[in-house]
Amino acid sequence: MNLRRYLPILDWGRTYDRGAFSNDMVAAVIVTIMLIPQSLAYALLAGLPPEAGIYASIAPIILYAIFGTSRALAVGPVAVVSLLTASAIGQVAEQGTAGYAVAALTLAFLSGGFLMLLGVLRLGFLANFLSHPVIAGFITASGILIAASQFKHILGISAQGHTLPEILMQLWENLGQTNWITVVLGVLATGFLFWVRKGLKPLMRRLGATPTVADFATKAGPVAAVVVTTLSVWLFGLDERGVKIVGSVPQSLPPLTMPGLSPDLIQALLIPAILISVIGFVESVSVAQTLAAKKRQRIDPDQELIGLGAANIGAAFTGGYPVTGGFSRSVVNYDAGAATPAAGAYTAVGLAIAAMALTPLVYFLPNATLAATIIVAVLSLVDFSILKKTWDYSASDFVAVTVTILLTLLMGVEIGVASGVVISVLLHLYKTSRPHVAEVGLVPGTQHFRNIHRHDVETDPKVVTLRVDESLYFINARFLEELVQSRVTEGCEIEHVILMFSAVNEVDFSALESLEAINLRLSDMGVGLHLSEVKGPVLDRLRQSHLLDVLNGQVFLSQYDAWRSVTDTSGQTAPTS
Amino acid sequence: MNLRRYLPILDWGRTYDRGAFSNDMVAAVIVTIMLIPQSLAYALLAGLPPEAGIYASIAPIILYAIFGTSRALAVGPVAVVSLLTASAIGQVAEQGTAGYAVAALTLAFLSGGFLMLLGVLRLGFLANFLSHPVIAGFITASGILIAASQFKHILGISAQGHTLPEILMQLWENLGQTNWITVVLGVLATGFLFWVRKGLKPLMRRLGATPTVADFATKAGPVAAVVVTTLSVWLFGLDERGVKIVGSVPQSLPPLTMPGLSPDLIQALLIPAILISVIGFVESVSVAQTLAAKKRQRIDPDQELIGLGAANIGAAFTGGYPVTGGFSRSVVNYDAGAATPAAGAYTAVGLAIAAMALTPLVYFLPNATLAATIIVAVLSLVDFSILKKTWDYSASDFVAVTVTILLTLLMGVEIGVASGVVISVLLHLYKTSRPHVAEVGLVPGTQHFRNIHRHDVETDPKVVTLRVDESLYFINARFLEELVQSRVTEGCEIEHVILMFSAVNEVDFSALESLEAINLRLSDMGVGLHLSEVKGPVLDRLRQSHLLDVLNGQVFLSQYDAWRSVTDTSGQTAPTS
């Protein structure tokens, strides 16, 4: 039972049949065709040699198939994680050096280790710190950064930088070195890919193609762009006229590699690795959950951590770099009919064949084509509607998304997403720091108590009843102290304060001490403090403290009892019958 | 009106009379006598020349009297803030250099500026991030660190370090240089001061002294120790036998000084300044609130920020260092009958006279006596009962206090208190990340719904009703997604899910998107999603989103309506009449 939890393959593997096999094979062929140019392109985005992208799509897919719980998720390099990788490694090594590739392995290793640790400790909840608006804002800003960073390949110039101002400044400075043949290739490829994405499918349908064929053509579009531009470079010798090409890629299966494990390297990459893990996990889980729901299946987020962790550790030892479950490839996999994770394994086989046999064919592939592939892919991530949606819905979410977008663009991905998390938490705590507290009175002729400002209720100048509409904890404990003190100092005739705890689910130690302070201060003023409608678990807790021993008043089961008791005692108001 | 808010002196100043004056004068004399040795000692603890402690007690007191709202708070150097000052400045300058004193001024200036900023922006709530257990743990650990750091003066050796292991290691290494005359003076002074604190008052009462006289004698104890040890050094020439003494202190009013404002210095001291501000503010406000309550007065925390901010800026320009409202001096001030903040101003005059006239008298005062004063004062701060109390009351508070104590002792004050804050917030978020969700059914013959696991209630295999007992926000949004998905995939016969929102006070944008995802996934499974008992403000919010447009079900005013409607529709259960 436990083994099955950690090895989901034991679940679907034993019922695997011919039908599932043929479905999986079809899906694998389609995904493989789509992944070849995509893998090369994302490796370019990460600043790594092109083969790293293919290697990162082989072992990780197989490991995820063994350990992962989603039946349709396709694991491999994705745009945002590639950008994060480039940003993290750029701080410890120079692009193109051996140290850079080793750092990428280390990053994948640390990220995999962190994910597995979270999975084993069942700490997947930590991913929730990334709120939806922060993720949406971060992905939009990342899409813009990625597209901007690829412009250099379209222009055939060089430009570095991890923030939008840096990238734009460098593009501007090096604009004079623009290679116009590259520009022509790049612009045509970009235009073509946009057209494939938007216009090809409707056109083919009008020409009488079946939806499946039209879909397939759309997915093969990048391959067509790759073939045409590669042939152009080869036939016209454009590489000798300054068009930058992929060049020679080793013809080999994924090599066995060792991530660098020096303490300095680990220290420099640990925080980025955690960030990459969490962002990759959140993206992956939401894709997996959406696809699973369509077939009334379930995924186990803690086991997903283990699956993705294994995939990243696999990438670290086979010449790859950090990977996660990609949105577009998973949807393609699902739509193509993948029935089990075995589809992923067949994709891995397809990519392994490509790595051994097809790599010489991409020698003349221009970088501009890969950049076009990336730009077209990531611009679909850019979606500013989150600003409008949060603006309409909630001011604090709007602030969080705005801060995330601006800081990601201006200060880089790491500061951007970290600020988003911090500001979301602060805004949430701020909201709960001033809980709603209503002063209530008795609805005549009933035993109900309502807000004195909204209803016509009985009150007594000697008695103040405050209904607290939130759990009490350290962030709002002092607020209650101040509120009670300010209310009681308003009128010298007050003799009793009743705190009505019907909506208080928790009283932490700070709140307990605040209640003790309120009790002490009210005692000093000669005012009684009573509690009413305290929930069972809260009362059990309070009984373990000494608040109830020193309470200058009583604990009442119901607010009505409390009211009757204190108004009787003070003897000024007729008891309500 | 507004001017009065910012200048509380306009409030009490216009009713100031002879009675208040004589009360304030008496309090001022008592506090001044107590403050002279204390100020010298805390300056020593902060690593500053002794006069800095006196200067820091003059201008700040006057400024607080003008801007502060508490009538009894006495502002000046305190032990914990002195320790924090030493720790912060130790990182940018060498003790005894001019740069060290200038950095102390900068720290006071930044701290004052930050407090004023918080006050003007009315952001006093940020201080709540320091939960009571974290403060208690921090103060206990700081007391130990302070006492340990003063041992070198008792032994007459030198030792640096900002963590307990560092201090102990240095004491151990330099033990060979112990000056035995210093040890004798130090141990006698410490023993005498402990006896004054514990045994003098009962003794004098037994000997027939009035409580006031006994109290006064207790407070004058440190002065006696100062006088006796100073005379001993002078008469026997002990300073020539290796006893370290205070030496010459300039005879002057507080000088006009300028804090260093170089960007490097500001960058290095900004975080410590914020920490000092917040810790000082929290301590000060809780003392002020306790004393105000005794006379049914109120303090305004946001105005307190301005008062303390002004005091610190005053310290920065008059040769002082960071100050705050001290516990012991405030209580003494209050007990001695201080009626208005004017008492503080008279204390300032007393100290100014001391600074001009009395400083030559402390030339032969041994550092060991000052160290004894500090040790006796801070050991009263050490109180491990917080461990027991939180252990009994709540596991998460116990973890927070333990982490704070250990990290403060082992890693220093700044890391200690910062970790305490972070861990408190994380534990709180963790607690709300898995809200209580009860599956409920209809109590037969009523319109009430109760937990199906605790009560004998009607259920329907086609309908799942989940009552959510917490507001929904980004930290717990995905929890709900997973819970619903896991519940629905359990039984294929489920046709309706009702979410009962009676205890949901907020639905943030992330939770909204989770509800949309739940709705979409349930739609894919052919299951309806309904909401019931949604509170007015929450429903208003939801109406601004498009969730309700796409909801695959309805929103019901009451759970009973929802139940009747879906059980009617599914047509399998007889409608409850």
From TrEMBL, chains A, B:
Main localization, broad class: membrane
Xref: SUPFAM superfamilies: SpoIIaa-like (SSF52091)
Annotated ranges, domain STAS: 453-573
InterPro entries in the cross-refs: SLC26A/SulP_dom (IPR011547), SLC26A/SulP_fam (IPR001902), STAS_dom (IPR002645), STAS_dom_sf (IPR036513)
Keywords, in A-Z order: Membrane, Transmembrane, Transmembrane helix
Subcellular location: Membrane
Chain segments annotated as transmembrane: 21-46, 99-121, 133-151, 178-196, 216-236, 265-293, 305-323, 343-363, 370-387, 399-427
Pfam families in alphabetical order: STAS, Sulfate_transp
Keyword Transmembrane helix: yes
Coiled coil: none
Source organism superkingdom: Bacteria
Membrane topology: Multi-pass membrane protein
NCBIfam families registered for this protein in UniProt: sulP
Stated name of the protein: Sulfate permease
Originating species: Loktanella gaetbuli
Native organism taxonomy: Bacteria, Pseudomonadati, Pseudomonadota, Alphaproteobacteria, Rhodobacterales
